[in-house]
């Protein structure tokens, strides 16, 4: 960690445009899911297109060393009811601002809840404070800082565009929806504490079905809305996927676009991944055998001829895990094995552990999350199962493609946008990269698993699937260009 000698007031070389990125987490500092990976990757992705991103994060305990080594640049005696100060720091070449408010963020547990997994009762205040600070910083409350564009991520930053509008700040705003199911809904009686004008207590502001809606507020107020895949941008206009916000999304359709997430090749590259016992390329796929053996050893799987499937996921209904767990006897009977890494619903955790007990040597389960182990599974398993009912973008299928771990996915959201089904036409054209199934039903998923097992037995065909996936470019190059184009259009309209 280093501290800049001066705040990033003007872009490097005097030509880049400063942008404030506002989020509740960012890799590698704080991570609970894919949001952190995206926020952590955006500064580098946008830097080559002339935008200098500064990321504003809450001052969680994990950031304490950076807070101690940083430089205070502003104080709020009362920020939505809490004392707070702004600390300037950096992570490598990326500029950071940290909202140091111990009463809000200096507590044990996760970013959103306590050690028992219960949401903090004051999340409404914690993330209102983050959003208000972000709006004021972008608008120039800190001497020498000014950001003409604020990019807010998910409900935790959703009030920021509303504050920009309420304070009439000369700032353009982008609201990115990573998962519309998570909306930040709170009791409407809390509205007076937010410091917003009375008119915003209506449907035209933060009111949402008789409650406060933080994500809804951002979608209402932002100049532009993005989701993390083109298909998801279309899906959330439908009640099946819109989670009650489909009407608002439809009215703002002209401002909504989908940009597929990228992955960072500096972190996810089988040719250079330190977490793999054997590194490899598309030309040296035989070297994956060493990693495959390591997966067998780690998960207690007996050697066998059939494929090793992996699951690296939250164990939830959204991810289709309830359907998958009921098919595990069939998966094993068909010649497959499973190595699972994940946690979530306690009944699903118990069901997967029970399946491992029924099938020793065929199913191995690790409850929890381990970053290095997730890399090993991508680099050693043969196929990754992602039967999500909805998936805004998904990153694990992108990692699977990059690592030659063939994705078996449901046709939804970013999964549909990134995996090409191995139907006969796609196989004949040499473009297939995985197996895609329609619907998350026992029959559909069973058929997809059996298709994968049959294709695995055709070794030359399977190798083509692996190499096709590894040849695809899912870096941030194109996604960064599209974000840059959006920024440009907002700040310099035609």
UniProtKB/TrEMBL annotation:
Q: What is this protein called?
A: Glycogen synthase
Q: Which residues form the Starch synthase catalytic domain?
A: 19-250
- Give the record's family classification: Belongs to the glycosyltransferase 1 family. Bacterial/plant glycogen synthase subfamily.
Alphabetically sorted, this entry's keywords are: Glycogen biosynthesis, Glycosyltransferase, Transferase
Q: Write the gene name.
A: glgA
Q: Name one Pfam family in it.
A: Glyco_transf_5
Keyword Glycosyltransferase on this protein?
yes
Organism, scientific name? Sphingomonas cynarae
Binding-site positions, ADP-alpha-D-glucose = 31
The record, for NCBIfam families, names: glgA, PRK00654.1-2
Pathway field: Glycan biosynthesis; glycogen biosynthesis
Q: Spell out the PANTHER family in the cross-references.
A: ALPHA AMYLASE DOMAIN-CONTAINING PROTEIN, GRANULE-BOUND STARCH SYNTHASE 1, CHLOROPLASTIC/AMYLOPLASTIC
Enzyme class comes to transferase
Domain annotation Glycosyl transferase family: ranges: 303-459
Known EC number: 2.4.1.21
Tree of life domain: Bacteria
Role played: Synthesizes alpha-1,4-glucan chains using ADP-glucose.
**Catalytic activity, as annotated:** [(1->4)-alpha-D-glucosyl](n) + ADP-alpha-D-glucose = [(1->4)-alpha-D-glucosyl](n+1) + ADP + H(+)
